[in-house]
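User: Please predict structures.

Assistant: First:
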Amino acid sequence: MLSSYLYDFPFLGDDSTITVDDNCVDPLYKHVFPIEVAPDLSFIGVPWKVIPFPLFELQSKWVAGILSGRIKLPSKDEMMEDVKAIYSRLETRGWPKRYTHNFSGGYQFEYDDWLAEQCGHPPIEEWRKLMYAANAKNKAARPERYRDEWDDDGLVALANEDFKKYF
């Protein structure tokens, strides 16, 4: 399955160190920073098959922390090793390069929690992770009706309890 959009950055020009090959934006450290120009340029929202708003918020906070000097990026060599590790995992799975930014299969929460840790925030709430897993299971079982038929009262109760701390 392809992402719902194709990456294209014509404003960067042909001499950019950032390329798009098989819909993979390359090389991006943690799917955000082009290594050669980090931290001067960043991309928020490149990953797909995600729960977008928590991801985008955490990416934005991470970039803000880096730009303010509160958070330090690793060396360019270390960032490139991280990118190569992602490509190696794809190759091991037999996945094409265009799946580089595909976060299906639960990777999003690992990534979100890493971003949260970098920013000094708590990890994504467990009830959110459970609700996402329940939704995926419901969608697979009832693709035509998954939005209308739910068995998640317990998860909604957990969410309501969590929300009380904000009021």
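Second:
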Amino acid sequence: MSATFTVSAGVRIPTSLLRQRRGSGRGRWHRLSTRAASELELEVCVKASTTVPDRLGDCPFTQRVLLTLEEKHLPYQMKFVDLSNKPHWFLQISPQGKVPLLKLEEKWLADSDVITQALEQKYPQPPLTTPPHKASVGSNIFSTFIAFLKSKDPSDATQQALLSELTSFNEYLKDNGPFINGDTISAADLSLAPKLYHMEIALGHYKNWSVPESLSYLNNYMKTIFSRESFVKTRALHEDVIAGWRPKVMS
């Protein structure tokens, strides 16, 4: 008889199903790590896809948490939450109705900063901490991307502001790369990469804009991280990213 595990939602999952492929559609719980099923312990509430049933949605902050779990080789389960129709059980553990949410030591933690820091403290190996003087590298890219995406005035400075931030980051990588902390991937990369992924898809779709080829170090950085196994496992579908940003573009 297959061993079973009971999770907080009352779902009992046989070991044989814990290795199911992502997107198989068998229930709402999916296992994406590679450790033995007997070690399964972490639960994560994530945004559900709005385009395909039983798939991960388009939240870059949730992907940051999932990337941390993947890079630390921690076993986890995702529970998909329809943010347009939030279930009662979810609002009970997340009064603000936001994801990501991770259960650690019987306590639900919110906010990707809080969650990733808690994971680093409890599971320090492999280390992902970014040195303080490097932690803010590239941190202005996301806000300038959003400003450009929302802009309806071709003559404003939003495109140039984004290009300036990307150029600065490209120069940083040229001198310090291939990752923000040099040769090894760190927390700062896991925070920035999902935002760059959203930037690439959303600006390509809504603005017909892409990162200039002249920013070769940035392009290589994106290509390297986007093809990383942990990223491929946790990325949103292009359709979800496009749909997710539509309200901001249309507002």
